[in-house]
């Protein structure tokens, strides 16, 4: 029986998540060893939630076999952490995806000057054109652009890179065969032809709001640096930039008017220490010394040609922007009360709403504002788990980030 089935079996267990899968691999060494382990041993693993331990007892391989069949039917391949061409930059992350699904030709990220271009779905015309121009010039000069493929900045960056004739990689929040948004389905095909589509989610997986913050750690993890083009305060773009900083990546940001809503987030990143960039060369100069054979200086593009190519890149962008979703930092009134009388959430009525780590963090952050280090000290939870839980709590609207990277709970828990 192929060992691939055991990887797909393990990553298909509910209640584990990326960190849980890696804990299982650290404990047993291989998915195959975990599959054939004594079920009693699962309950003894430190840091594994009860739901995750219980899901490991399910030895049905039908789901794994179906994923293998789907990959074969769709022309997809997948990498595991043990494969030689799995990117080392990702392998070093504590929550590295155990499996990556690929359509197209995957670049050797570890040999590339990879720059992630991120920003708001509700981008302004200025943001869209800036993202396309930066991505186009970065690609033309030899860098590899990675992004999502959602509305706004993602789509503009991908189209800009394609206009430069170079490869581009889009990291997805769902199955490679489930285009999101639907109107970008032809762009999916263009990316797969010129570069690669990449996801840790198996074929058929719908794009959900909770997937995008999880996806974002891959975007930043593959890259040397992350460029934030436009973002509101509290948005998913800022969380991606903070993930990049936590991973030791460079963070770049495009400045904007102080009173422009879509520039507040990027201006805040600059205030926090991100590198202000005005042109693509500001990014490339950071890497020229270390990657002399990879980057090209080249003559600047003529203004008329650059304008024409940017126009072509942004001409077919969807005119309507979707409503904000959980992956873009949205909060719903059903979840929280933004006034001082914060909403209470009953753990008795909704016991599965939060993980144990999230509960501990919400309790620790119930009063006042706290840094991540203070929350680590209060909860005695390992740093990587606190940072992961904080990301999910922010995305889902239960915690907000204040100035100085201090966090405040927006809900209160009760038994």
Helix content: 40-55%
The radius of gyration computed from the alpha-carbon positions, rounded to a whole number of angstroms, is 21 Å
The name of the CATH architecture of the largest domain is 3-Layer(aba) Sandwich
Overall pLDDT, averaged? Answer: 85
Tally of DSSP β-strands: 14
Q: Reading side by side through the largest sheet, how are the strands ordered?
A: 1-2-6-5-4-3-7-8-9
Classify the fold: give the CATH topology of the largest domain. Answer: Rossmann fold
Largest sheet: 9 strands, mixed
CATH class of the largest domain: Alpha Beta
> Which regions contain 5 or more consecutive residues with pLDDT less than 50?
318-340
Characterize the quaternary organization of these chains: single chain
Share of β-strand residues:
5-15%
Tally of contiguous helical segments: 18
Written description of the protein model:
- With 415 residues, the chain is an alpha/beta fold.
- The protein has three domains: 4-74, DNA polymerase, domain 1; 103-323, Rossmann fold (3-Layer(aba) Sandwich), CATH 3.40.50; 331-414, Winged helix-like DNA-binding domain superfamily/Winged helix DNA-binding domain (Arc Repressor Mutant, subunit A, Orthogonal Bundle).
- Helices cover 41% and strands 13% of the residues.
- It has helices spanning 4-11, 17-28, 31-35, 39-42, 50-55, 62-74, 88-91, 125-140, 153-163, 185-194, 211-221, 236-246, 261-271, 280-284, 303-315, 356-364, 372-379, 383-395, and strands at 77-80, 99-104, 114-118, 144-147, 168-171, 196-199, 225-228, 250-253, 275-276, 343-346, 370-371, 399-402, 406-409, 411-414.
- Strands 1-2-6-5-4-3-7-8-9 form a nine-stranded mixed beta sheet, sandwiched between helices. Strands 11-13-12 form a three-stranded antiparallel beta sheet.
- Helix 11 (211-221) packs across helix 12 and helix 17 crosses helix 18 (383-395).
- The longest helix has 16 residues, at 125-140.
- The termini are far apart.
- The relative contact order is 0.10.
């Amino acid at each position: 029986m192929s060992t691939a089935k055991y990887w797909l079996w393990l990553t298909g267990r509910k209640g584990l998540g990326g960190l849980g899968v890696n804990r299982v691999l650290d404990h047993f060494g291989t998915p195959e060893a975990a599959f054939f382990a004594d079920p009693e041993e699962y309950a003894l693993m430190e840091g594994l939630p009860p739901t995750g331990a219980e899901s490991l007892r399910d030895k049905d391989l039908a789901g794994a076999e179906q994923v293998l069949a789907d990959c074969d039917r769709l022309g997809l391949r997948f990498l595991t952490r043990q494969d030689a061409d799995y990117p080392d930059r990702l392998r070093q992350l504590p929550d590295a995806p155990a499996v990556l699904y690929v359509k197209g030709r995957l670049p050797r990220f570890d040999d590339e000057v990879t720059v992630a271009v991120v920003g708001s779905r509700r981008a302004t015309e200025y943001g869209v054109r800036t993202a396309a121009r930066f991505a186009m010039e970065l690609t033309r000069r030899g860098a590899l652009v990675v992004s999502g493929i959602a509305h706004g900045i993602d789509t503009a960056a991908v189209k800009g890179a394609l206009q430069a004739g170079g490869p581009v990689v889009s990291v997805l929040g769902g199955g490679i065969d489930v285009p999101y948004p639907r109107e970008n389905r032809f762009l999916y095909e263009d990316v797969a032809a010129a570069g690669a589509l990449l996801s840790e989610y198996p074929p058929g997986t719908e794009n959900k709001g909770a997937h995008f913050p999880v996806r974002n750690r891959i975007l930043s993890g593959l890259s040397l640096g992350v460029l934030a083009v436009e973002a509101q305060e509290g948005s998913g773009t800022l969380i991606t930039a903070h993930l990049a900083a936590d991973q030791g990546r460079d963070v770049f940001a495009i400045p904007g008017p102080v009173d422009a809503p879509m520039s507040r987030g990027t201006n805040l990143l600059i205030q926090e220490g991100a590198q202000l960039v005005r042109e693509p060369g500001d990014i490339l100069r950071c890497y020229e010394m270390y990657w002399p054979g990879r980057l090209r200086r080249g003559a600047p593009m003529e203004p008329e040609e650059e304008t024409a190519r940017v126009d072509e890149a942004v001409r077919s962008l969807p005119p309507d922007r979707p409503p904000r979703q959980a992956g873009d930092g949205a909060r719903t009134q059903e979840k929280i009360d933004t006034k001082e009388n914060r909403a209470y959430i009953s753990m008795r009525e909704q016991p599965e709403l939060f993980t144990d780590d999230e509960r501990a963090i919400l309790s620790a952050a119930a009063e006042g504002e706290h840094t991540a280090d203070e929350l680590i000290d209060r909860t005695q939870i390992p740093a990587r788990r606190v940072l992961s839980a904080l990301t999910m709590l922010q995305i889902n609207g239960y915690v907000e980030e204040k100035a100085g990277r201090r966090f405040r709970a927006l809900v209160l828990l009760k038994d």
